[in-house]
Amino acid sequence: MVNSYIPKTYKEALNLLAQNELLIIAGGTDLMVKFKSISGLLPKFKKDMLFISHLAELDFIKKEKNSIHIGANVTLEKVLNSKHTHYLLKKALLIMASPAIRNMGTVGGNIVNASPAGDTLPVLYVLNTKIVVESLDNKRIIPIEDFIVGPSKTILKENELVKEIIIEDKSFDYMVFEKIGTRQADAISKISFAAVTNIKNSNISDFRVSFGAVGPRIVREKELEKKVIGVTIDELNGMCNLICDNYSKFITPIDDQRSSAIYRKKVALNLLEEYIKSIK
Amino acid sequence: MSNISKAIEKVDSEEKMAGKAKYINDISYNDMLFAMTLRASESKAKIIKITYPKIPKGYTIVDYNDIPGKNFVKIIYEDMPIFAKKEINYYGEPILLVVGEDKAIISDIINNIHVTYKVQTPSYELKNSVIYYEFEKGKAKEIFKNAKKIIHFDYSTGYQEHVYIEPQGLIGLYEPDKITIIGSMQCPYYIKNAVMQALNSGEKGVRVKQATTGGAFGGKEEFPSLIACQIAVAVLKIKKPIKLIYDREEDMEFTTKRHPSNIKLQAAIGINNEIQAIKAYVALDSGAYIGLSGVVLQRAMIASSGVYTIDNIEVAGDVYETNTVPNGAFRGFGAPQMMFAIEMFINHIASELKLDPFTLRNKYLAKQGDITSTGGKFRDVIIMDEMIKKVMKMSDYKKKYLKYSKKDNYKGIGMSWFLHGCGFTGSGEQKHIKALVKLRKEKNNFVTILVASVDMGQGIQTTLRKIVANILQIPVKKVIYNNPDTDLVPDSGPTVASRTIMIVGGLVAQAAKLLKEQWIDGKEITIAKRYKQPKHIKWDEENLRGDAYPAYSWGVNVVEVVVNPITYQVELIGIWEVYDVGKAIDERIVLGQAEGGVLQGISYGMLEVMKNVNGRIQQKNITDYIIPTSCDSVNIETVFIDNPYLLGPYGAKGAGELTLIGGAPAVALAIENAINRRVTKIPVTPEYIMELIDYGEN
Amino acid sequence: MAKIKFTLNGKEINITIDPTARLLDILRDQYGLVGVKEGCGEGECGACAVLINEVIINSCIVPMGTINNKSIVTIEGFSETKRYEVIRKAFEDEGAVQCGFCTPGMIIASESLLNNNPHPTEEEIRIGLSGNLCRCTGYNMIVKAVKTASKRGEGLW
């Protein structure tokens, strides 16, 4: 049996983290499955636990000038229903898991879980999301692509907690989120895809693309994006094959019990191609 | 109550809704212990040695040494042990139980038992045939020898896992001269007979009671006999109540599934493009033990000409053993595999011959009086013409088919025609089951139905009561029908093979009619009725010749889909279904069978992927093994056309299995129509569709 | 171990318990609320669904440490309400119950949906039930039942 801490305040949670090696649990929708034991027995947690889902300091959604701030404890369902939530993020949340999971799972948990198949991640990547982490004596604001370093791996330190995420609040001329799941609802992604584009005077002024479940990390290649900034829509369409070729080497999926590598790669590139063609 | 089909309140739904119905895991006893299974970690091996940790007081190991009777689970063949002795034949094969009070300690003991194996080479290929059957109708062999043109296609089907929402589970109870098994099951007497053989006890030494059962679909036909024997042996040794409940993963990895199959079909084509003969070969993967596989093979082979009358047929089939988890009964029992293959094949013959598939199918559609694949006769009126017309009108099939066939619009529509034999194959009812039912009129004029058939969701708690109440002209509330208890009810046979309404219900109806004649207010009267095969039904079990079934239910399904050419995903647009089940005893209950069955069949055809790699099931939980959600289902339009069967109660025939059988071919044909490529295997996944679009033939 | 305070079907409960224990086990084993079923143990099937602060949650993946000061309603508690009566009758009339193992969870899902959206469209109903697996019915009779309950329960939600 492990020890559990249920702090009264956010400050107390940071204090506990400063003194102990703890596994942080919010809604529990990932951890309770990952450490599942036999029915009737306690989950097989290896570390002492820090419960945070009740901390009101982390339960907020705020709109600022060009960004939305979402506290780490906000449930996915609340984000889905908030009027401040970006259209694309709503789209991802609406087909993510099931109502019961969305009622329990949190934004912070979803990010720290860092699953390459995590449904919100490709959207958070293209919206240039930043993660605010805090420890008792420090605060860091880290771009999401630097925060997540591999499957279930982040650069969160032992004494740190994810406090909030900051999502760019910007509208785009072309936006898409596609989830290719194993079924219509309550499914795990075989592939997910998010892309946003802005056009200024017939030229591409902003172009961002990301893929989920096609490799150990979410794929977002800013160098490739830069190559199309400034080109005309016609030029972009003309570059379609080249762009797909360029992305091809970053799309390195695997065969698993849910799909095949060949399928994932082909469909990922189909989605990109289709998206580029939709920009007219 | 004049119209038997008019829906009445389902008698068990209120307690189920309120959470008051007691499923096996909801039942507890004082002093009750828990059991968990130690399983083999090799696919093929000999056990050299087992070393145990220190076993604390109150904890017990139960293995083959504790079995007083035979170490075989009585099914058909004596091949599957209750506990592995020396030989391991599949990964996960049960070796022993650890029994005790605290699950944490049991789990700890299991983790610290060390089994030393001498590993042998497992076989995962279909090489080792353990059962072979063949039969011929007409002169198929001769025709094939001289055939000018032969069309040949190979088909294959995958596993299907039942995913009853309630996992397997049983409790065993001890009395000095009796072991009682309570649990989630379809066949109380199968379990009773299996446990008697394991314990080497007499009739009175074993009692089996059904608890409310949370779905079964065939998965609780023969499998519970295995765990019942294990628990019975444990209870005999420890003399306390013991509960064994599977977690979902254990259930998915180590219980029976639908047999994967490979089916080769050939047609000899004459000079006028007529089908002169069909040759069918079926290979079933039984897994490590035969279980019911031989009977499943028979049903598949008998279905080899589908709803069509072909004068010359040659059929053969093998059951192959592999070092994988044993496969078993699943709604449809061999028919879904064959019906998929033959429905695709007849369409593929048409496309090879550049004929209109609808015309070709119609030409061979069976009519009353035609000879069946086994040389029996379709004795009763067949109303498929009317059913097909109806479903085509409902779905606007013709117009859509033409439209979707022409354009590359990725829309498709498919139609399947199918039948299902009701009751046990051949003389099974007469020779092996010999069903006996009783009705007892109590002194208070209530009437108790005494049968071993179980309600597993299909509604017989309601429909059997309704039959009795209707015949006796008494309120349904005055008919008592408790979950079966082998100490109280006769052996009316297992709850399988679409036999419960037609065979058991038929006997119950006959008994009710007799009771009505003998009715005396205030007096206790018991009426018994045993099954007698209609004289005209003749079956040669050795050679699979004659009337394979006393009656057939028929169905037509239409499925419309749209395939996404970017992602290859399939979206269901609509489902239309028309059935002849004789007469629906309760329209709403039969509608529930129809809607649930067709979706299970469609998802077998497009969604449900289960693979075994090196003896290990890859999809071990319901996150990875995909069954439909409410968002995957679409509106279904269902029609039943009455075609009463003389010997069924109120004309009723079987309905439970029929409704699953047409789903897979209908959706596969719809996808074929949408992508203009030939589909030869199920499930038709997006991965397979991608392959077909890139490399497939049209 | 920690002290946890919550209400269970309207009654206030104070217990000392391991905060990592599953709510499902506590409901079934300590409080005998066996209408809450275990179908998968990993939050996928919805058979163990309960209402926590009026919304559906799968109790098999809820650690006790997260329910402090919350209100838990199981099927046993919900079945005492007027809303339940409306849903029950609709399920009955539409033939939404077969084996019944998913049914308490389906009813909890229906309540959670209707409480939040008294007049859902068919699509919204399908989404609302999408975390509750049923292998018997093919779902449509359940979807119709929720529609019927929504109509008949005018003003209740």
Query: What count of helical segments of chain A does DSSP give?
Result: 12
The chain pair forming the largest interface, with residue counts per chain, is:
B-C, 55 and 49 residues
Would you list the SSEs of chain A in sequence order as H and E?
A: EHEHEEEHHHHHEEHEEEEEEHHHH
Q: What structural class is derived from the secondary structure elements of chain A?
A: alpha+beta
Instruction: Indicate the overall shape of chain B.
Output: globular
Strand content of chain B: 15-25%
Q: How much is the radius of gyration of chain B in Å?
A: 25 Å
Q: What portion of residues of chain A belong to β-strands?
A: 25-35%
CATH superfamily of the largest domain in chain B: Aldehyde oxidase/xanthine dehydrogenase, molybdopterin binding domain
User: Mean of the pLDDT scores of chain A?
Assistant: 96
What distance separates the N and C termini of chain A? 60 Å
The poorly predicted ranges of chain B are: none
Give the low-pLDDT segments of chain A: none
The main sheet of chain B orders its strands as 3-5-1-12-9-10-11
Query: What is the CA-based Rg of chain A, rounded?
Result: 20 Å
Question: Main traits of this protein?
Answer:
heterotrimer, B: 698 residues, alpha+beta, Aldehyde Oxidoreductase, domain 3, Aldehyde Oxidoreductase, domain 4, 3 domains, seven-stranded mixed sheet, six-stranded mixed sheet, C: 157 residues, Ubiquitin-like (UB roll), DNA polymerase, domain 1, 2 domains, five-stranded mixed sheet, 38% helix
Question: What features would you describe in this structure?
Answer:
The complex is a heterotrimer of chains A (280), B (698) and C (157). Chain A is of the alpha+beta class and 280 residues long. Chain A has twelve helices and 13 strands. Chain A folds into two domains: 165 residues, Uridine Diphospho-n-acetylenolpyruvylglucosamine Reductase, domain 3 (2-Layer Sandwich), CATH 3.30.465.10; 105 residues, Enolase-like, domain 1 (2-Layer Sandwich). Helix content of chain A is 31%, strand content 26%. In chain A, the strands form four sheets. In chain A, strands 4-5-10-6-7 form a five-stranded antiparallel sheet. A three-stranded parallel sheet of chain A has the order 1-3-2, with helices on one face. The longest helix of chain A has 18 residues. Chain B has three domains: 166 residues, Aldehyde oxidase/xanthine dehydrogenase, a/b hammerhead (Aldehyde Oxidoreductase, domain 3), CATH 3.90.1170; 315 residues, Aldehyde oxidase/xanthine dehydrogenase, molybdopterin binding domain (Aldehyde Oxidoreductase, domain 4, 2-Layer Sandwich); 103 residues, Aldehyde oxidase/xanthine dehydrogenase, molybdopterin binding domain (Aldehyde Oxidoreductase, domain 4, 2-Layer Sandwich). Chain B has 18 helices and 28 strands. In chain B, the strands form seven sheets. Chain B has a seven-stranded mixed sheet with strand order 3-5-1-12-9-10-11, sandwiched between helices. Chain B has a six-stranded mixed sheet with strand order 7-15-14-13-8-28, with helices on both faces. By secondary structure, chain C is of the alpha+beta class. Chain C folds into two domains: 74 residues, Beta-grasp domain (Ubiquitin-like (UB roll)); 71 residues, [2Fe-2S]-binding domain (DNA polymerase, domain 1). The mean pLDDT of chain C is 98. At the A-B interface, helix 12 of A face helix 2 and helix 18 of B.
